[in-house]
Amino acid sequence: MEQQNKTAEKLLQIMFFTLVISVMNATIFNVVLSSISKEFSLTASQVSWITTGYGIMYAFGSVTYGKLADRYRLKDLLTFGLIFMVLGSLIGLAAQQYWLIVMGRMLQAAGAAVIPAVSMIIPVNYFTSENRGRAIGTMVSALALGTA
């Protein structure tokens, strides 16, 4: 039982960190939009697709992963999502064309969306009823911190 509690606490810490990064990722990119606009000679509507594409994929992905969590192991979903998030980040980092930036951001969002969906399921599955409220509170704190 003690080992299970330690594992749950470690999982909670990892999920807190990844949830902050996932939520922060939606807005942190905005600081470079003007540079991207100048670099690629983009209109405001073109630049907005970098953020809009991310938001659409993030919302769609969160709902989809929530449903997939009923069928697949959370570990598998998290691994899949984090791989896509990193892959999208690398594509965006190496992008030399506008469409690759948009594609990279959308792929990044498709992966990052697993985190908020799964982060609310983990406290229910891995914490006792006495500790569940604290675990959910920790996840909600990560959501708030990520948007700050």
TrEMBL record:
A GO term from the CC aspect: plasma membrane
Domain of life: Bacteria
InterPro entries xref list: MFS, MFS_dom, MFS_trans_sf
Transmembrane segments: 12-34, 46-65, 77-100, 106-127
Pfam families, sorted: MFS_1
Record keywords: Membrane, Transmembrane, Transmembrane helix, Transport
Major facilitator superfamily (MFS) profile domain boundaries: 11-148
Record localization: Cell membrane
Chief location category: membrane
UniProt membrane topology term: Multi-pass membrane protein
PANTHER family reported for this sequence: MAJOR FACILITATOR SUPERFAMILY MULTIDRUG TRANSPORTER MFSC
The protein's name in its UniProt record: MFS transporter
